[in-house]
Amino acid sequence: xxxxxxxxxxxxxxxxxxxxxxxxxxxxxxxxxxxxxxxxxxxxxxxxxxxxxxxxxxxxxxxxxxxxxxxxxxxxxxxxxxxxxxxxxxxxxxxxxxxxxxxxxxxxxxxxxxxxxxxxxxxxxxxxxxxxxxxxxxxxxxxxxxxxxxxxxxxxxxxxxxxxxxxxxxxxxxxxxxxxxxxxxxxxxxxxxxxxxxxxxxxxxxxxxxxxxxxxxxxxxxx
Length: 223
What we know:
Largest sheet: none
Oligomer: single chain
Order of helices and strands: HHHHHHHHH
Strand content: under 5%
Number of domains: 2
Radius of gyration: 23 Å
Shape: elongated
Number of helices: 9
Mean pLDDT: 91
Low-confidence stretches: none
Number of strands: 0
């Protein structure tokens, strides 16, 4: 029970993620089969649908936009600040900070990760591992979206007796960028809302909010 309590946040989000993913597959299958019947086609089963390019492209385009959001937020908050927001460092503390502040090299503690005490490439990789991982997942998700989207797009073109397009043709097409940008703009708006609204609004007990009594100008302070 203690392990569950100590990991409750990640367990809750993982459970909700899996339920939503399964629900998306079910709703998508029902919508797909309805369209198939209208067009005189055959309905498909759940497993067939969730392994199809139509489902894969819908999942991948959301994943890549989410990880783009995290990647940009991680990188921008190194060098940019927003006075009054708990999502920002204090003005004047922009930058990668000193080795002492980051507890690396000779300033590492006894319980610091081993790579925090390393030098050279290992230290650089560990120092940037979060951004590198988020960036890698974003690129892989983007590639998955482009490949699955190409298959789905060409299937629609072939059903309409039109010639298929190449991967290069698809990633420069309006369909691809319509899918991408509609997700990007919503994710960026969500981040903007969190950064700005957290200046003036509070959520008692949440580390994403300042303490209820903190001044609006207090920056980088969490509840």
